[in-house]
Amino acid sequence: MSAPELIRIVSRDSPMALAQVERVKAELAAHSPSIATEVVPVRTTGDKWMGDLSKVEGKGAFTKEVDAALLAGEADLAVHCVKDIPADRPLPAGTTFAAFLERDDIRDALVHPDGLTLDRLPDGARVGTSSVRRTAQLAASHPHLNCVPFRGNANRRLAKLAAGEADALLLAVAGLHRIGRPDVISDILSQETMCPPIGAGVLALQCREDDTRTIDAVSVLNHPGTYREVTAERMFLHVLQGHCNSPIAGYATSHRNGDLSLRACVFTPDGKTVLNAHEWAGPLDPATLGTSVAVSLLRQGARELIDTIAH
Fold first, then answer.
1. Around 75, how many Cα atoms within 13 Å sit in the side-chain half-sphere?
2. Which of 104, 146, 189, 262 could form a disulfide with 174 if both were Cys (CB 3.0 to 4.6 A apart)?
3. Which of these ranges, 4-13, 30-39, 49-58, 266-275, has the smallest mean pLDDT?
4. pLDDT digits (tens, 9 = 90+) for 213-240
5. 77-81 sheet: strands from edge to edge
6. Which residues of 71-158 form beta strands (DSSP E)?
């Protein structure tokens, strides 16, 4: 089957999202230089709404308009951050994942104007984040700090920090690199200190199921190790049926011997209860590994914990 002459790529219109599209375009050009690309930026509900995400469909607020443009035929390929794609429900009917790009750094970073690390922040320091995952983990590990709500794209959050609306800020390492601002990082937190969100550091390419020409053209960008990790993580989240207000974290790791492991946690919002599970795949396929880790947490009471959180 011949490759398409043009692939129209739809994405959120934030600076980071557009930088992610540039990565996709560059990788596609390296594999298929004859294919032209065109960017179709859209403003999503999540980008326009600065309040509680649970009031506007949670994480689906960052994907709904992008999915609509793809399904309407206004674009051929959607670029998403996997962490923004809901896993408690299927992809929109008629769409499928065509590839997962090789994973970037999954860790979180602290940004402090004077270069302080997380452990050196004084009592009562205000840390900007609207992530329930980060808030719960900070409450557990650094209860002397105060989390203050911070919404908006990474550049906007950095501007709020500069304006004094918080003393420090938590952002993803990968995101800061994508917008060309790794210089602001004062501390990179280990996964043990701050367990990342499901799908951290991964870009997903989504197509219409019947668009086999585009699927074939972009599937060469799929990274097998990342595909296995994301499959395990998203199945884990799907079985748990977590929502946008659920403090759930976890990450899969592809090991040199070909094995796959998945570590995951569920927290109460105040960080006082932490459920942990960590398993290795062995003969299990990634989806079965994700299911097994979710079942382990459900046996510890994760269902009751998640269901007590309003959403």
1. 24
2. 104
3. 49-58
4. 999 999 999 999 999 999 999 999 999 9
5. 36-42, 6-12, 77-81, 203-208, 95-100
6. 77-81, 95-100, 108-111, 126-128, 146-148
Contacts of 30 (CB under 8 A, 6+ apart): none
Determine which helix (DSSP H) or strand (DSSP E) holds 63, and give its type and residue range.
none
Q: What percent of the chain has pLDDT over 70?
A: 92
CA distance 57 to 89: 12
Q: How far apart are CA 110 and CA 282, in angstroms?
A: 35
Q: Is the model's pLDDT at 49 over the cut of 70?
A: no
> Using CA atoms, how far apart are residues 206 and 68, in angstroms rounded to an integer?
12
Phi and psi torsions of 153, nearest 5° = -70, 170
C-alpha distances (whole Å) from 10 to each of 153, 159, 291 are 18, 27, 32
Number of residues written out for the chain: 311
Q: Kindly report the three-state secondary structure assignment for every residue of 155-175.
A: HHHHHHHHCCCCCEEEEEHHH
Q: Which residues lie below 8 Å from residue 96, measured CB to CB, with a gap of 6+?
A: 206, 207, 208, 209, 215
User: What is the spatial distance between Cα 9 and Cα 29, in angstroms, rounded to a whole number?
Assistant: 13
Residue positions annotated with a catalytic role? 84
Sequence letter at residue 21: V
Return the residue matching tokens 């960590």.
Answer: 278
Two structure tokens written together for 93: 């009917």
Rounded-to-integer distance, Cα 149 and Cα 55, Å: 15
Burial (Cβ within 10 Å: 0-12, 13-18, ≥19) of residue 119: exposed
